[in-house]
Amino acid sequence: MKAIRIAGLAVAIVCSAQLAAQPPDGDWTMSAHDYASTRYSALDALNTQNVAKLAVDFTFSTGIDRGQEAAPLVVGETMYIVGPFPNPVFALDLTKPGAPLKWKYQPHPEPAAQGVACCDVVNRGGAYANGTFVFNTLDGNTIALDAATGMERWKAHLGDINKGETITMAPLIVKGKVLVGDSGGEFGVRGWLAALDLADGHVVWKAYNTGPDADVLIGPQFKPFYAGDRGKDLGVKTWPPQAWKIGGGTVWGWISYDPALNLVYYGTGNPGPWNADQRPGDNKWTSGIFARDADTGQARWYYQFSPHDLYDYDAVNENLLLDLPIGGTTRKVIVRPERNGFIYVIDRATGQVLSADPFGLNNSIERIDLKSGRPVYNPSYRPKAGRTTRGICPGSPGAKDWNPSAYSPKTGLVYIPHINLCMDVEPSEVSYIAGTPYVGTDQRMYAGPGGNRGVFTAWDPVRRKVAWEVKEDLPLWSAALVTAGDLVFYGTMDGWFKAVDARTGALKWQFQTGSGIIGQPVSYRGPDGRQYIAVLSGVGGWAGAIVVGNLDPRDSTGASGFVNATRDLKQKTGTGGTLYVFALPK
Amino acid sequence: MSSHCRNDPVLSNALRARAVAIATVFALLCSCQREDREYASAPTSNAQPPRQSTLQPGATAANPADPVGQHYQDNAFHIDEGSRLYRAYNCSGCHANGGGGIGPALMDADWRYGGRIDQIHATILEGRPNGMPSFRGKLTDAQAWQLAAYVRAMSGNVRNDAEPSRREGMAATPPLDRLPKQPPRNGDPSAGTVPPP
């Protein structure tokens, strides 16, 4: 037993040494914990044996009862929280009992921004580096604060709400640059990723995800693996004339960074409008992944998960940078549970897809052709304007939406919180009116086979199969956290916060919070040396729109059809906005 | 010649039948009130802007509804035009087929900024601070009234003889005449969840 534990520890040490730029063990300085986006905490004081005694240590109200999607960050003795619109930032003093407020910053964003936020007025959190806390506001600003005092250092206006641009993502700080992208894929905006100087906020480089190569920062270094991604100005040529200007490809999800290759990786959102008949062509560079030079922004490679996206299979999901044994050698790969329902393993130096396996129910895409890299769409589920196509699986939020997965080097498993929804779709012609939705689709979603709307899957990326699975009644909209104590944490939309055994999925502990959980749990070591688990509770987001927007369940197309799948949610949870922090009693 | 006609029973019967038919058609025409289609212009008025609050400090002053509104909300043509504009101006992108999404539901009884047609008309043209865009200058005044008439009808507040035809395609909501009549109730509870800026 002891030998096994020591062996396990040795594996943990070796593996954690591989993880890129691991911050100090006890801190949580960026949303995904580390540049490799593992959401793995090496703290192991809390484990499967003692988790049953886990109890609330303190709580904190954000005062906003909209969807709480942010990860609380912990740096040394301070915790930082960003709320949904109007995006206040709170710093809590962890050295004192009850963690009192140290400072509060109110950015006063434009209230009209709420009218162009597609799926609740969420914020996915901030980032910390060099004594600076950086976050984004719904009305399109990036703001840097002095982490010690909460004084504003700089503010950069990047998005225009009159064009439908908002910012909801959590920035990532890489080598003194703040990486930020826009939201608004449902408003016909043009997607981009910008790098701002951490010192003063000026734009160092900005790469668009549609349009001419010069705008996309495609130059001589660009060497995509697949022939279909090579050629001049594909970001213009794969669209009807001028359509790239309102074509989407936003960056509202996750960014990873490999210091050895000096590459940043991020996904691009759906093309606009959703009605695909209005945009014949592959619609590059939407619904794909870019690898870019972190210093210059120049594109190195690109791969398109969903060319000519038919279903709003936004490709903004997290990229787990792992070194895995594949075919007898250790390969530097990206493991990516993609919204289109396939989990991809991609060589992160070249962009070659090594494997792509379905991790959920899928009938819209038959398989991924590894030779061309292209998905083979099932023609019988191809939507057409003016008619209703039924039974498409997965639905628009995919087999998995924004909520990121976690990876434990101890178990070698990827922990994926996701959904099991199918849909009926009726596209129709839509006109572009700046600042209004550019979608052109009526749709309604419902539970897929089995009737459960959520699934938590532990996936073995080496054996390429499911290790274990937990079915959840409601869609899973929270992120996953895994710890060295072999515990996996996630929350449900009816407010349960759960800890399951990382090796078996057996439920070890659960706690009913005040509202549905759609946030990102984190683990940290407090100034007193104890291990803490923290999560924000507060239902919302696309899946929770029916509750926070008080939507009418009699319309099956409400909230782009999500209302039909969550008609019962108002009976199961109410709005909230509270931080819960748990620890073993002293 | 004439006597021949008078004595011909067949012709006489035909004449009588024709007279009855003409009388019937005339009677039918008189009993139907044909609705006027106003393709070009619409009545305008100089009514006061509608109040949003029922609370008035001191003596309560009257705030009569703009009489123009009544004209639009009882007219099938205007309501049908409104349903077309509702999609053409991407209202459906935020409010879906009445259930709401980015914006609030329009098929329930709750109205953040008032559910009277002149209040809805003002909301469409002027916009509201928590995300409703202002469409002033993008629609004619008559179109804004047509839209407002349709939006009001979405919660079942429509005369049966003015109800718009149903959209073809995927049925999203019950037909408007099957919705319970939901008299506007100002004070949408979800409005309280919109945090102050």
Report on the structure:
The complex is a heterodimer of chains A (about 575) and B (about 200). By secondary structure, chain A is mainly beta. In chain A, about 5% of the residues lie in helices and about 35% in strands. In chain A, the strands form ten sheets. In chain A, strands 1-32-33-34-35 form a five-stranded mixed beta sheet, with no helix packed on it. Chain B is built from seven helices and two strands, in the order αααααβααβ. Chain B has helices at about 1-5, 10-30, 65-75, 75-90, 90-95, 115-125, 140-155, and strands at about 110, 185. In chain B, helix 6 (about 115-125) packs across helix 7. Chain B starts with a helix and ends in an 11-residue tail after the last strand. At the A-B interface, strand 29 of A face helix 5 of B.
Share in β-strands of chain B: under 5%
Instruction: Give the overall average pLDDT of chain B.
Output: 82
- CA-based shape of chain A: globular
Number of contiguous helices of chain A = 6
Low-confidence stretches of chain A: 1-22
What is the arithmetic mean of pLDDT of chain A?
95
Question: Structural class per helix/strand content of chain A?
Answer: mainly beta
Summarize the biggest pleated sheet of chain B. 2 strands, parallel
Tally of contiguous helical segments of chain B: 7
What is the number of strand segments of chain A? 38
Q: Based on Cα principal axes, name the global outline of chain B.
A: globular
Strand numbers in spatial order across the main sheet of chain B: 1-2
Distance between the termini of chain A: 27 Å
What is the helix fraction of residues of chain A, given as a range?
under 10%
Largest sheet of chain A: 5 strands, mixed
C-alpha Rg of chain A (nearest Å): 22 Å
Greatest contact pair? Answer: A-B, 52 and 41 residues
Distance between the termini of chain B: 94 Å
